Amino acid sequence: MDWSFEEKSAWGSLLAVVISSWLFFPVALTHLAAGGELRELAGRAILVVFVIVVVEIVYHSIFAIASRNTGSDERDVLISMKADKWSGYVLAFGVCWIIGLIVVRDVLPGSPPPSSVLIAIYLLLALTVSEASKILLQIWYYRTGI
Amino acid sequence: MVSTGVRNKIRKLRFAKDEMTQQQLADQVGVTRQTIVAVENGKYSPSLDVAFRIAIALGEPLDAVFYYEPGAR
Questions:
Q1: Total domains in the fold of chain B
Q2: Is B53 inside any structural domain?
Q3: For residue B26, what are the domain limits?
Q4: What pLDDT was estimated at residue B73?
Q5: Residue B16: which CATH number?
Q6: Tell me: the pLDDT tens digits for B6-39?
Q7: How far apart are CA B15 and CA B44, in angstroms?
Q8: Distance (Å, whole) CA A123 – CA A128
Q9: Per residue in A18-53, pLDDT tens?
């Protein structure tokens, strides 16, 4: 694998985001849709944070041992900035979508607006999708050029 | 694959300079080896600063290392 340390790091972060999302969002959304309470998800949230930390530490430790950390250079910075820009658009789209959802459901008769807890979960989902898109774009730029 | 209009002769000049490796060039320039690979393959146009440092490391003037092909993107 002819990857720079930064690219390897991006794959590790992607793995952590995918695993944590898979562990949290399906359960959280199903639970809240069924009328469950947020505090009942506290254990799951702590587990997810723990998994993210463990995956990041284990993954980066393995690569730090296997190959030297060459640091980052101007190409890494440029790739990060471009990926940041597009992930910002993704986050903005997610937030606008949530605002639209709140407004539409408030205006339409017979459809109650989403609870504040559900809005928080949607915002967290938008943040996660934005982060995932940033990492995917970084990997894309590393593979195809910039 | 993204390609830029900036072309270079780095690979040829590396071999002419005692078969300098990509890693050796990267160390002299202060970038990662993957960045040298990307520049050589036309997948990344370096900043003017890095371009000058590459040229100095290869002992050549800038325009002997890099050239531009209009419409070659």
A1: 1
A2: yes
A3: 9-61
A4: 56
A5: 1.10.260.40
A6: 899 999 999 999 899 999 999 999 999 999 999 9
A7: 21
A8: 9
A9: 999 999 999 988 888 887 777 788 888 898 889 899
Q: Are strands B6-8 and B66-68 parallel, antiparallel or unpaired?
A: antiparallel
Tokens found for residue A119: 């809005």
What is the band of A7 on the pLDDT scale with cuts at 50, 70, 90? Answer: confident
Domain count for chain A, please give it. Answer: 1
Contacts of B44 in chain A (CB under 8 A): 75, 145-146
The verdict on residue B40 lying in a domain is yes
Phi, psi of A67 (to 5 degrees): -145, 150
Tokens of A60: 């980066």
> Is the pLDDT score of B69 beyond 90?
no
Nearest CA in chain A to B44: A146
Looking at the complex, report in whole angstroms how far the Cα of residue A26 sits from the nearest Cα belonging to chain B: 36
**Phi, psi (degrees; rounded to nearest 5) at B66:** -115, 145
